[in-house]
Design goal:
- This protein is α/β, with parallel strands linked by helices.
- It is built from ten helices and 15 strands.
- The strands form three sheets. An eleven-stranded mixed β-sheet has the order 1-2-3-5-4-6-7-8-13-12-9, with helices on both faces. A two-stranded antiparallel sheet has the order 10-11.
Length: about 325
């Protein structure tokens, strides 16, 4: 019941915030540049800009447009580049997701962070509450906070196609999700067959829905002021960490900024800046990392992407960029 109440409040928030434009925002698919299966393998990179190409795909009646960023050195199909799948949350699309994660930019410049080569980045444009593919136009799974279940077959097919067409290094395939996107990442991480393809995972703004898995490093990111989900996400992180301590995991502090649970006032920008703590837990071949931050963004406070600039809707001003944390984590954890 508590989950339903929170979900209904979220629906009210959507309607109150976006009014008559809600349908366009939550069924927000950009115009495709080309169609599926993938036939154009040329780069989207233009100088220092990662660029993006939109692939329009229809799979079993489900329409999804995938935005893909392709660095120049990844367009020859020789198997030298990695792949990141970056899944947005409710009311968002690929463009909104990338403004928070910036994974197109970090994927393009991954070599400067220690990667052997850049990463191609796939960012889907999924539908939410108002879904043209659902009977009556309403996606009940969205209302209840579920994964993008309708679009999963299409997502899997597109990823498979990209891996083949671009000759992706199969030891460097990773997945990240924010908010509702984390529900979708759970579908991959918690399934034995699906997670086998991926080297490591990152989840943000939601909880892990299964036990930690062997040889699948996981980064869980949450804001301590996130009240959108039924369980305060900081409490969820602490529950997981306490459970790992009880099970004998080794623990270390990667970074813990002074007084990190309280944002500080930045007079140069006239905004409050969130700080963070980053912890690591290890036991055998199970690897877990937690990042908690004190950033806030209207209207959902801690339910936001931590960024050092370009803060706004679902993006909060913090002392670090979440995209850098994610790219460093993925680089450090190829498949073993």
């Amino acid at each position: 019941m508590k989950k339903l109440i929170h979900s209904l409040l979220f629906v009210i928030f959507i309607i109150a915030t976006f009014g008559s434009t809600a349908y366009a925002l939550v069924d927000n698919q950009p115009k495709p540049d080309t169609s599926c299966p993938i036939s154009i393998t040329s780069a989207t990179q233009s100088g220092s800009s990662p660029g993006v190409r939109h692939y329009g795909c229809v799979d079993d009646g489900i329409n999804v447009v995938y935005s893909m960023s392709i660095p120049s050195s990844c367009s020859n199909g020789y198997g030298n580049c990695g792949l990141i799948v970056d899944i947005h949350g409710a009311t968002m699309n690929a463009e909104g997701e990338n403004r928070g994660s910036k994974l197109r930019q970090y994927g393009l410049n991954a070599v400067s962070y220690g990667a052997a080569s850049p990463y191609i980045v796939i960012q889907p444009n999924f539908t939410d509450l108002f879904d043209k593919q659902e009977k009556g136009g309403i996606d009940i799974e969205s209302v209840l906070g579920g994964a993008y279940l309708n679009e999963l077959p299409s997502l899997k097919a597109f990823i498979d196609d990209a891996i083949v067409k671009f000759g992706i290094d199969e030891n460097r395939i990773h997945m990240y999700g924010f908010s509702r996107g984390t529900h979708t990442v759970n579908e991959f991480y918690c399934d034995k067959t699906e997670r086998a393809r991926y080297a490591s995972f990152a989840m943000h703004g939601e909880k892990l829905k299964c036990n930690l898995k062997s040889n699948k490093p996981l980064l869980l990111v949450n804001g301590i002021y996130d009240f959108l989900t039924p369980n305060n996400q900081s409490k969820e992180n602490k529950r997981v960490m306490n459970l790992l301590r009880d099970k004998g995991y080794g623990e270390s502090v990667v970074i813990s900024e002074s007084d990190w649970e309280k944002p500080y006032w930045d007079w140069s920008t006239w905004t409050k800046v969130g700080r963070y703590e980053h912890r690591r837990f290890l036991k055998g071949n199970r690897w877990f990392e937690s990042i908690e931050h004190s950033g806030k963004a209207k209207p959902l406070f801690g339910h936001c992407h931590p960024v050092t600039s370009d803060w706004g809707f679902l993006r909060c001003h913090t002392s670090f960029d979440i995209g850098e944390k994610i790219i460093r984590f993925f680089i450090a954890h190829p498949k073993k």
